[in-house]
Write a structure and sequence with these properties.
The protein is of the alpha+beta class. The protein has helices spanning 9-33, 40-94, 114-120, 124-127, 141-150, and strands at 99-103, 109-112, 158-164, 173-183, 189-198. It is built from five helices and five strands; from the N terminus they run ααββαααβββ.
Length: 209
């Protein structure tokens, strides 16, 4: 999407208007001081010149106003497009065939898509703000915590395989969790993205820490 750049016309027009207005004010003040002088024609010409300068300044202000209006309209359109793009991405995220979780660097759930909620049998209120390790089978938790603690040392996407325990009444299942770490400009982890897939139909294979 193209980013709208601010035009230099607006600040220049406003500055020119201010200068013209100041000159006109000084000229009108001079006319008041010379009100008793006999040169009426000269005063009329000076007043006409000051009036002309005011008109020019007003035209400059109108140009600046139109430029500002166009910029505001362009910003509004960009804002609407960004919101539409965001809504579309959210729709696709929630309709994805895999479950997705977003956690902070400590593994606390910040967001979950519809498929993750379905796999785990939990509503957003029962997921967000909770440690993701709570849905891991107790026997696998130590290995999961080791995986989480070493994520920051790796740049590639890593897969962890273990057993997930959904809400009460739901059958536990073998799952693959693929992770990727978002980092800030200094390389510090800011969040972790988890892809959650039910792989119960896969052949048994060694798990990774």
């Amino acid at each position: 999407m193209k980013k709208e750049s601010a035009s230099p016309i607006l600040p220049e027009a406003i500055e020119a208007f201010g200068e013209s207005l100041l000159r006109s004010q000084r000229r009108i003040a001079s006319l008041h001081l010379r009100a008793t002088e006999p040169q009426l024609q000269e005063r009329q010409e000076a007043f006409a010149e000051a009036s002309h300068e005011l008109l020019v300044a007003l035209e400059s202000l109108q140009v600046a106003e139109e430029e500002l209006r166009q910029q505001q309209e362009a910003l509004r359109q960009s804002h609407d497009e960004l919101h539409a793009d965001r809504d579309e991405l959210l729709r696709l995220w929630h309709q994805a065939p895999d479950g997705y979780l977003i956690t902070d660097p400590e593994g606390i759930v910040e967001d979950a898509n519809a498929r993750a909620e379905e796999l785990l049998g939990r509503s957003p209120s029962r997921l967000i703000g909770k440690p993701v390790v709570l849905v891991v089978e107790e026997a696998d938790r130590a290995r999961f915590r080791t995986h989480l603690s070493t994520l920051y040392q790796r740049d590639s996407h890593d897969e962890w395989i273990g057993t997930i325990v959904p809400a009460v009444g739901r059958q536990r299942f073998r799952a693959a969790l693929t992770t990727s770490v978002d980092r800030d400009a200094k390389g510090h982890a800011t969040r972790i993205r988890w892809s959650l897939r039910d792989i119960s139909g896969r052949n048994a294979r060694p798990t990774r820490a």
